[in-house]
């Protein structure tokens, strides 16, 4: 994949970043029914508090676009931008904060933050945040709790010590029905007791991310949040998007759905318009990260 290098001066910090060749993706504004740029997305974010970026976790083009979007949003709001990430769990927030202010080494951060196997795709965003004093919200539920729910259902969370509750959203976690459950069952292949426990785990993930963002904004008025998650968590404005809207209904939200599609050069946009405010289609032939 070819990259074009751009250099920006942000708040006395020079940031060089790689942007995928424009031939590898297209961005569509589903409201204006037009092809737009990342800069146009940032302009739309002026009227929003939180911008959800729903990604495919192995899409390097999407990850590079996330990085670029973070940089552009920082240029627009240099003192009032934060990054929220599904890729880190709430219990490692102190580790994240320690690394961002330079108190611990990257080696220790990588170990204690339990980074994903394709962290190299997310690392540029963390390093940008570190260099520019951008807060990063470790938004997702620790795996020990999600595993417990998958095995035993949501009621098991009530048995955890009070100290554990600081890493969880408010209990009880709402198990959303309707369109989200239908979507989940369609993807998983039907309804069963096992799949219902997995669905409860899905709702715990969504609630944790929504609560993490809502809690940050309650303490940090006026910030803009770029939140990254797998696109199932926010497509059709369901999942974590809906949970955040329920926790903080006063917030204004926007969403992006980004994924590889065979028709990305000449897409049938009508098939994608219900997914998000912006749909980004990427070239499926670009090598995936796993």
Description:
The protein contains 9 helices and 10 strands. It is an alpha/beta fold. The chain has a single domain, classed as Rossmann fold, CATH 3.40.50. Helix 1 crosses helix 2 and helix 6 packs antiparallel against helix 8. The radius of gyration is 19 Å and the shape is globular.
Topology:
Blueprint: E1 3-10, E2 13-20, E3 25-29, E4 34-36, H1 38-45, E5 50-55, H2 60-76, E6 81-89, H3 93-100, H4 106-112, H5 119-132, E7 136-140, H6 143-152, H7 179-188, H8 193-219, E8 224-230, H9 240-247, E9 253-260, E10 278-282
Helix pairs in contact: 1-2, 2-5, 6-8, 8-9
Radius of gyration: 19 Å
Helix % is: 25-40%
Number of helices: 9
Low-confidence stretches: 1-17
The CATH topology label is Rossmann fold
User: Overall 3D geometry?
Assistant: globular
Sheet with most strands: 8 strands, mixed
- Domains, number: 1
Descriptors for this entry?
8-stranded mixed β-sheet; about 290 residues; Rossmann fold; alpha/beta; disordered N terminus; 10 strands; single chain; 9 helices
Tell me briefly what this model is:
With about 290 residues, the protein is an alpha/beta fold. It has helices at about 40-45, 60-75, 95-100, 105-110, 120-130, 145-150, 180-190, 195-220, 240-245, and strands at about 5-10, 15-20, 25-30, 35, 50-55, 80-90, 135-140, 225-230, 255-260, 280. The strands form two sheets. The protein has an eight-stranded mixed β-sheet, sandwiched between helices. A two-stranded antiparallel ribbon has the order 1-2.
